[in-house]
Amino acid sequence: MDWLFHSEFDTAVTVALWSIAVVSVTTIVLFAYTMGLRIVTLVQARRRQRFLTSWRDIFVLAMLSRKDAAEQTLPPVRRGDHTDLLEEWNRARSIVSGSAVENLIELARRTGIPDLALRLFRKHSVRSRILAVQTVGHLRDSAHRGEVRQLVEHENTALSITAAVALVEIDPDYGASVVVPLIEQRRDWPVNRVSILLRLAGSERVSEPLYRAIRSAENEGRIYLLKFARLMEPEVLDALVGDLVSSSNDPGVLNAALKLVSGYRGVPRLAWLTRHETWYVRMQAAKVIGRVGQEEHLALLESLLDDPEWWVRYRAAQSIVSLPFLGPNQLRKLQKKQSDRFAADILQQAFAEVGLA
Amino acid sequence: MVAQAQAISTHRALVVEDNEHVLYMLDFILSRAGYEVIAVNNGRDAQTSIENLPPVDIIVLDLMLPYVSGYQLIADIRDDPEWQHVPIIVVSGKVMEDDIVKALDLGANDYVTKPFRPEELLARMRRIVADHERLAPLR
């Protein structure tokens, strides 16, 4: 090594050589470390995939046959696999209904899934708690109804709606009575998830609390809640629509209520509605008559053919064409007797749409 | 169950479903029941299968699919000279009356809503395939 220290120039070369050596060694170490990490990640990913596939097969088998699933040897579950196992079970559980659900719950008990869910329940992470609540709901585990009930009013949207669904799964009667009155306040809950929740509870359980919630809400709340009214029992829905149409003067409420009319059981105040000051109420009234109208309502529709608002004239004309008791000849006669040009024109357009022109 | 599986052991089913978990499950269940399954996860691949493969015995179809909707696929199948008589059973999360009526009007033979009962789906498939085979000589 003496040749390295002959002069100042040699010192510089020495420093350079040592630097190269250090950089090279560092690079090799880092490369080896990166490769090692990559290999570990790949091995873990493959192991996880094998784990998920084997459990997925067991869950699907359990859906079909409790006996076949009971004969299966269950793969070992390590501490790090708990979340994957719960997620996979919940996925399987959410796809099926009927006896397959009972089979999956039975298998979950054998696997220790309820204990795993309870452990997650007590964690602070919202993600863990959501998974825990979903699992408890899917297990229909009534022992934890109180804890789930508390989470329904949690400020976190995802956690609270998951708890609401879980509560309905655990105890549909109690769940519906708790959750339905909260829907108006919890506008942060996604509408589609609320619909799923109400459907899960069943129209027989939802009808009464939803009817009460709509009747007691202010106009804006009523309009929001009416989005879910189709999930009520038909006779309760008809009674609700009748009540609202006969008692409310709010255009938004009338509009939302009229959209729900599906069969003619005496829609109140139809003539008044066709003369309402708000154009979209008149338009909805025209559509209602088109759906459920009787012969005596034809005059009401005719009176809307010269309405100042184009949409009202258009829907009235469409409704006239859709009335089952009017044939092509009667429709043409009706058009001829119109003295107003707008009325005749809009009827012509509605005729053209159904190939009558 | 074993007898039923053997009875339909030669049948082929095209399964179109974009959710990988549901697709896996349908593939597993149908294979176990004796079907030879062609599984695709989007509408475009389903169209390719219809263009390039001989008709299958039954199609299990979701409605909400990437690229081409289930409704469009039903219409395409009913317009296809080779595939037009293949029975279609829709398995969908769409539960509204309008959606069900639309699918049946377009030509679906049956409609099952998610979440579904696996055994009930298999029973419906058995009945539809049997009807299809019984009527085949008349076509």
Low-confidence stretches of chain B: 1-8
Q: What characteristic shape of chain B results from the CA principal axes?
A: globular
Strand content of chain B: 15-25%
The helix/strand order of chain B is HEHEHEHEHEH
Amount of beta strand of chain A: under 5%
Describe the main β-sheet of chain B briefly. Answer: 5 strands, parallel
Question: What are the segments of chain A in which pLDDT stays under 50 over at least 5 consecutive residues?
Answer: none
Coarse morphology of chain A: elongated
CATH superfamily of chain B: Response regulator
The helix tally of chain B amounts to 6
Short structural description:
The complex is a heterodimer of chains A (357) and B (139). Chain A has 357 residues and is an all-alpha fold.
Can you describe what's shown?
The complex is a heterodimer of chains A (357) and B (139). Chain A is built from 20 helices and no strands. Chain A is elongated and about 115 Å long. By secondary structure, chain A is mainly alpha-helical. In chain A, 72% of the residues lie in helices and 0% in strands. Chain B is of the alpha/beta class. Chain B has a single domain (2-130), classed as 3-Layer(aba) Sandwich (Rossmann fold), CATH 3.40.50. Chain B has six helices and five strands. In chain B, β3 (58-61), α4 (70-79) and β4 form a beta-alpha-beta unit.
